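Input chain follows. Return structure tokens only.
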Amino acid sequence: MNSTPPTATSSGSKFIVVVLLTGVACLGAWAFILKRDLAGANEEIAAARKGSNGATVVQGEVQRLKAQVLELEARLAAVPVPAPVSPTAETPAQPAPKAANPMAAVAQMMNNPAMKAMMATQQRRAIETQMAELFEMLQLTPEQRTRLVDLLAERQAATTEAGLKLAAGDLSAEERRALALEVQQSNQGTLAAVRDLLGDENKVAYFRQYTEQANERTQVNALKTTLASSGAPLSAEQAAAMTTLMYEERKSFVFTRNPDAGAGDPAAALNSQAVETNLQEQEQLNERIATRAATVLSPAQLAALRQTQAARLQTTRAGLEMSRQMLGVGK
């Protein structure tokens, strides 16, 4: 392994994986909005036909509502689904044009006020749920808690907006570098605001470590879910110990630096060699974690950990490959 600090996962690919998750959430939210409006229109037609006294309503109103339903159905059908269409026997195969990037459509959807409002609400609720333990440990006043949620929600919204711009795939290398720098500066601004809000360096240090451990808590929660229905559930003490050791191992592991990533372009971390190297090193890190976890977990729990590690690695591989396709990264 190289002795240079990690960059391949910490800036480029990690940022883009967040974008993928955001894109899926956006598509789901958009479909939900359209289905909700469609259901409402259908109910309105049914109520209009029946009428409160059973009388027939004006035909023009029914036609207006039918038109609304047709429009909503067409909009719902237009929600992008990234599924390739194979040529049929009747239609000879033609040279495939460059595939449309579904994330470009997602980015366009975010201009919809209802979508923006729904995403903001979902993100805020997620922050309040995921950070509840942190808020309790920091012993925040109600005003401080509200302000901290505001700061984190603003940072998440900025990251989401920048990520969707990146994932749309139409930015130049220079524009991608500028966008990555913008996100970095936004994060630094958020940390400065949090420092002012908390007014205690010990609390700030705890905040930073807690937020840095989000990846490990996600993995431990997945393991906890896997073991919940087994005869060997994960205890609170084991969960805490696993979060700490996984975090320590990740922080001490030295990933190979991708020389192309030095210019700050997130896409530079996604060439095939860099991705494969990163995945191999992630597998090495998983092995180090599993070896150390043997002192915390039972044999059955350890076997489950290895299974969740393997599944997560496959998910990471698929996400990085999708990111390469979206950004048009070649070999």
